[in-house]
Automatic annotation (TrEMBL):
Highest taxon listed in the record's lineage: Bacteria
InterPro entries registered for this protein in UniProt: ABC-2_transporter-like (IPR010390)
One family name in Pfam for this protein: ABC2_membrane_6
Native source species: Streptomyces violarus
Annotated protein name in UniProt: ABC-2 type transport system permease protein
Keywords assigned: Membrane, Transmembrane, Transmembrane helix
Listed transmembrane segments: 117-136, 142-166, 178-200, 233-255
Length: 267
């Protein structure tokens, strides 16, 4: 029975897309357009230069395209299923999360796992197509590939907790649309989604080192393209693991405090 509950929770958001073929077509088209535009942009930026910020043209293009593909891991339409924390708080139905057979924190984790596995299928398919087309470079060695996979796993784990903290803010702010937009922009900027962090000033890079955002994407992609050498991989992986532990403890505390704010009438 527990396995059945877990399976039902994990497939909530993916089913919303699988049952809507036009939405899947739109996702594929948007992803293809993003990859082409990013590929064209970075090739154009490096048209008259060699190495910039420690990155060659091929490294920069590979980094940027992989960042677009990685964004599909958590970029699903949760609002259609009306099962986001923000919506439940707005409609006063968050109390039902505490009446289900699964605890709310486990339900949230299982649903996020299903979303990331579904997003991984999109990202992996896009990666194979880009690799075959020569848009991105392959890993320089099997060791680099292995470290990249491990770092990406830890990065997605950190990202899960970062997004969880944003959702947990709803228990105190009820409607935090503005805060969500600001924090999502900060996440994308500081994690290197818009551009590799090495293109930013030194003070910006130093500041971001004290935040968990770059551990979500910048570190894995930098290991892949070789901007971070394998000799520094152990340190970077340990930092990512430390953020996982710290955020896990923090969100666990927030879950406990959030439960005290839920009343029988709803949110």
């Amino acid at each position: 029975m527990a396995v059945l509950h877990a399976w039902r929770a994990a497939r909530v958001t993916p089913l919303g897309e699988l049952n809507a073929p036009p939405r899947m077509t739109a996702v594929a088209l948007r992803l293809a357009v993003q990859v082409v535009l990013v590929w064209s942009l970075w090739r154009g930026l490096y048209a008259h230069s060699g190495t910039t910020a420690g990155l060659s043209r091929d490294q920069a293009v590979t980094y940027a395209v992989l960042a677009v593909l990685a964004s599909r891991l958590r970029e699903l339409d949760q609002f259609t299923g009306r099962d986001t924390v923000l919506q439940h708080m707005h409609f006063g139905t968050i109390v039902y999360w505490y009446l289900r057979p699964l605890p709310p924190q486990r339900y949230y984790a299982l649903r996020a796992a299903g979303e990331q596995l579904y997003g991984l299928a999109w990202a992996l398919a896009g990666y194979l197509v880009c690799l075959a087309a020569g848009i991105v470079e392959p890993p320089r060695s099997a060791a680099v590939a292995g470290v990249f996979v491990l770092s990406m796993l830890l990065g997605q784990w950190v990202l899960y907790y970062v997004m969880l903290v944003l959702d947990q803010l709803c228990f105190w702010t009820i409607r935090n649309n503005a805060a969500m937009l600001i924090l999502l922009f900060a996440q994308n900027l500081l994690s290197g989604v818009y551009a590799p962090l090495w293109f930013f000033p030194d003070w910006f890079v130093t500041m971001s080192a004290f935040l968990p955002f770059q551990a979500t994407l910048s570190v894995p992609l930098s290991l892949y393209v070789g901007r971070i050498p394998l000799s520094d991989a152990a340190f970077q992986l340990s930092v990512q693991a430390a953020w996982v532990v710290a955020l896990a403890l923090f969100t666990r505390l927030l879950w406990r405090r959030a439960a005290r704010r839920v009343i029988s009438q709803g949110g």
